[in-house]
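Quick start: read one record
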Amino acid sequence: MKKSILVLSMLIGFSAIIFNSCSKSDTPATPVVTVAPPAVAGSWSRSNGTAIFSLVLNNDYSYSSSMSGAPIESGTYAIADTSITFNSTAGSSGCIGKPGKYGYTIIGTVLRFKMMSDSCVARYAGVIPGDWNKK
């Protein structure tokens, strides 16, 4: 009789363990994350009266810039709140390895950049700061 009660108790306990392990997971569900394209993404242009500058900011956080059709630089960019940091990886601007940080605002079809910090003269001396028009 004692053996039967002991075996029955063990079976009930074992069943409870199996039931609990099957009914819940210790691993939380993986959330579905969607990344919206940055608001700055698109093709932008501006003119300084002498040349037409183009800036293409891609959804994958890569960018390229040109002056009157000739490439200037390309690289990646990062967004943090209302600032954008350009990291040049190729081009003739001399900006490779010199990140440039700019504040930005978008008003309608105008993207406005204001320099916060940039050690690359070619980028801050008239290429990036100012108003850019959506193409």
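The chain has two helices and eight strands.
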